[in-house]
Amino acid sequence: MRIIEDCKAGTFTLVPVNFGERMLVRKLLDTVKRNLKYEYHGHAKNSTQENKALQFNVGGTPYRKAIFYNGKKLGIADGYKGGTNFRVRASDEKSRKALGGMRDMCFFASGGLLFLREAQVDNTRSIVCTGAFCKSCGSPVIGLVAARENLICGECSDGKCEHEYKKTVLLTPAFGLIETEACTKCKRMSPAAFERAKQTPKLQRLAEAQAHLRALAANVHCFLGRFGDDLNMSVDEAVALRDSGAVPERYKELVATVPEAKAIFDDIAKDFQERI
Ligand SMILES: [Zn+2]
Ligand SMILES: [Zn+2]
Question: Which listed ligand is nearest to 135 at the C-alpha?
Answer without folding.
Answer: 1
